[in-house]
Amino acid sequence: MSRPTPLPFSALPAAAFHATQRVRFGDCDPAGIVFFPTWFAMANGAIEDFFESELVIDFHALHATRRIGTGFAHAEADFFAPGLMGDRVTLTPLLARIGGASYSITMHVHRGEEELLRMHLVTATTDLDARRAVPIPGDLRAALAAYQGRCA
User: Fold this and answer.
1) How does pLDDT run across 24-52, given as a tens digit for each residue?
2) In angstroms, rounded to a whole number, what is the distance separating the alpha carbons of residues 141 and 124?
3) Structural domains in the chain?
4) Which of 138, 148, 135 is nearest to 57 (CA)?
5) pLDDT by residue (tens digit) across 73-90?
């Protein structure tokens, strides 16, 4: 397996959505370094913001009202540098693939120009009541595809 090379922030598509978060005291281990599972919680928060601001789909209504889940079916990360307490980081989701009942996001996390980590997240769409995979809803598919096109 080859290790990816970190990308500078300026190498990301100009049309990409960015969510900015501050690393808080509670996000870190005793050494002041971001505890690795915290990155996945931050990524999920960025995805909620991405739905609202970029896709114009109410993330909470999708889950609570429409009963469509968007949980991670697979998550992995390559870490390039530690995130530190007090950092302001930028999370940038890019669509890697849109399938029948899942889609893949590559989440780039930067501190300024420096890429700290890159996450590969596969999200499955599920019927929350039946607890089974369902096709990506048409409005979500169209919004994801449009974003992917803007970032190509």
Assistant:
1) 999 999 999 999 999 999 999 999 999 99
2) 12
3) 10-151 (3.10.129.10)
4) 138
5) 999 999 999 999 999 999
